[in-house]
What does this fold into?
Amino acid sequence: MNAMLVVFWKEILENLRDRRTVINTLLTGPLMAPLMFALIINASISRELAKADKPLPVPVVGAEHAPNLIAALKRSGAEIKDAPADPEKAVREQDADMVLRIPAAFAKSWSDGEPAQVELVYDESQRDAQGSVARLRGMLEAYSQQNTAMRLVARGIAPSVMRPLAIAERDQSTAQTRGGGLFSMLPYFFILGVFIGGMALAIDTTAGERERQSLEPLFVNPVRRSTLLAGKLGATVAFAFTTLVLSIIAFSVAGQFMPIDKLGISLQMGFYFAVCTLLVMLPLVVLLCSLQTLAAAFAKSFREAQTYLSLLMFVPVIPTMLLSLFPLKTQTWMYAVPLMGQHVTILRLLRGDPILPEQLALCVAATSVAALVCVWITARIYASERLAISA
Amino acid sequence: MIEVTHLHKAFGKVQAVDDVSFVARDGQITGLLGPNGAGKTTTLRMLYTLMKPDRGSVKVDGIDAATDPLGVRRRLGVLPDARGLYKRLSARENIDYFGRLQGLDPATRSARIAELSAALDMGDILERRTEGFSQGQRVKTAIARALIHGPTNVILDEPTNGLDVMATRAMRGFMRELKAQGHCVLFSSHIMQEVGALCDRIVVIARGRVVADESPEELRAQTGAASLEDAFVKIIGSEEGLAA
It folds into this structure.
């Protein structure tokens, strides 16, 4: 116990003297994620807001064939522009979001009572243009319905004949749940922070010591290797956990400055959220740190360890990707899967959904078991003969 | 006292240590001499329980390394082949760390550090961070931390490797001092002059086997060679790997 603390404090002291490690743990790890997130959110929110308010520029080919339609579009907020010479090419090359083409036959079809065709040239794969296209389509459909009604009335038929079905939408999402969708990447950023926070120490305490030839002299001391490992792992966990706490704080603070209320959503980032997140993340921190130490123990050099750990960083993305590709209903078994359990818990906490105490306990217990297994394997590797030998 | 009997160790198909036996007594300097790759470092690694022998036993002051490795390590002060320091810690902090791991109390630690610092003449580097230390300064620090707990038995793996003339002389003086204090000093080297000048007993290892275990005088008499150097060449059977 005493020797473990000796190792723990020495690793803490030594790494606190390394400016790069301290910056990674206290600054990069906790701040990078919330900053990136704030940037994305802010950009998407301000773009949405800007698009709804501004007049919609609509390049039109053959505007002279349908003066009434053009006038109606202008009233709905469209700004009619001259079309580019080659509309299809312009859309493909993203010079225009879309182009409206009115054929010369439009006026004749219209006055004959035939469906008058207009062409909407756009690119479905351009996510950026989707909002504009939808707005223009809405304007066209509104004009169409308006004229349907007028034609029916002119023939003495009630326009309601054309609407046998009325759809009334009752959206059950709350401000909270819409926020959850937007923030579904958040758990990954917390986990990433833990990774960055623990990385330097995991490498330094094992692969680094071996490369600097100080592991063999250390092992000559009358201390069990498992005790040495416990001290080193403890220091790694301490750094990673510090990063986690700071990143939760940073997120809460950043959340205050994000105009998320403009999208009509709100998020739970209070004390309860912080405490529950820390609780479910604590065993995960131990699991990830011992995974990192394990990977570093296998590496022959510092550089190799860095490569392994960078690859390991992709592991926590898997549940995030799976859940966004296959938006499964949250089920109890998910809490038992390390990483996925934390992901689900943090998301539900953010959305203000209830979590049963036994689900929380299941998440903590299952990840703790996984962490213990991983620590045990690492201890076995640590006991092996070849671990200390540098050359 | 260190007793080694019938040690064997193989790495895959390579028999690195093949039936090595010898005794290093208290109050004596025992030299482990052999060309590069003869199995010296592997033998020493089994002594300080970093590796387990395939066969054979190691006893330090009567304690069996196989059953009580911690007890053995407590009685050993070891300067291994690897002698890396923690560069963000000062020399004193490096030494103190090992003192804590040995379970020494603060008063003993600071008294021992003062003692060792005087003996190794490292007063001017004690409070400096070890980053940028010269080879000699690094070896001094590594020896001080290895001996912080005042062990009876001292194992030094090529202690003068990479040292300049002055540092080598100082190191030899330090080893004689340890001997005078009654320590059992076991060191490995491939430098004959050093072994000849220092040792009470020479154990010559070649290709994993003990080929001679004598005093320097006996060695010369036995081989009929005029100088120690010729004696070594005769015993080992080639000049490969030996340095003057």
Q: What stands out?
A: The longest strand of chain A covers residues 56-61.
